[in-house]
Amino acid sequence: MLLVSLSLLFFICSPDADRHLAVGWSYEGDDGPKNWPQTCKGKQQSPINIDDSEVKINKNLRDIKFVNYDKALNNPTLVNNGHSVKLDIEDDSNVPNIQAGGLKSEYMFQQLHFHWGSEDSKGSEHTLNNKVYPMEMHLVHYNSNYEKDEVYKHEDGLAVLAVFIEVFYTLEKHD
């Protein structure tokens, strides 16, 4: 039996967050994850390691409110873009969005994509206490105050929910 464990991370992305997409990067060698902080030169870019001993909990934050996540997606498209699988949707009145939880605006769902490795011990873009997960899913949302093609110009343009996915194998008893 295959069991999957999910952990949720939340990031507000600045224009630096996707800067590594515009410059040379890869998952291996000189352009690999260990050098992304030097390559990206930002303070809020991916990837990051979350060290729970340094996490400061803000008890004033409310829960994130998920709106229309229970509705069917309008004409979803699943595409293999060569380094991930990406799900896009068409805009309509039922577009999923997130609110509250420290967000000052409504953030509309834009797409989701995955990061995974060639083996079960690696693949996530981010780490938790330096632990690498086999897969990570990013749910990308854009600030509804901006046009979609302008969000990368604004510090509060994107909100990304990151989900760590962990694989557990168990032995099944057969009678």
How do you describe this structure in short?
With 175 residues, this protein is mainly beta. Helices cover 3% and strands 37% of the residues. The chain has one helix at residues 36-40, and strands at residues 2-13, 49-50, 64-67, 77-80, 85-88, 97-100, 107-116, 127-128, 131-132, 135-143, 158-169.
Descriptive account of the structure:
This protein is mainly β. Helix content is 3%, strand content 37%. It contains one helix and eleven strands, in the order βαββββββββββ. Strands 1, 3, 4, 5, 6, 7, 10 and 11 form an eight-stranded antiparallel sheet that branches. A three-stranded mixed sheet has the order 2-8-9, with no helix packed on it. The protein is globular, with a radius of gyration of 17 Å. The protein starts with a strand and ends in a 6-residue tail after the last strand.
- The shape, in one word, is globular
Stretches where pLDDT is under 50 for at least 5 consecutive residues are 1-23
Q: How many helical elements? A: 1
Query: Helix and strand string, N-terminal first?
Result: EHEEEEEEEEEE
Share in helix: under 10%
Distance between the termini: 15 Å
- Calculate the mean pLDDT score and round it: 75
Give the structural class. Answer: mainly beta
> Hey, roughly how much beta strand do the residues contain?
35-45%
Biggest sheet, in brief?
Answer: 8 strands, antiparallel
Q: What is the C-alpha radius of gyration, as a whole number of Å?
A: 17 Å
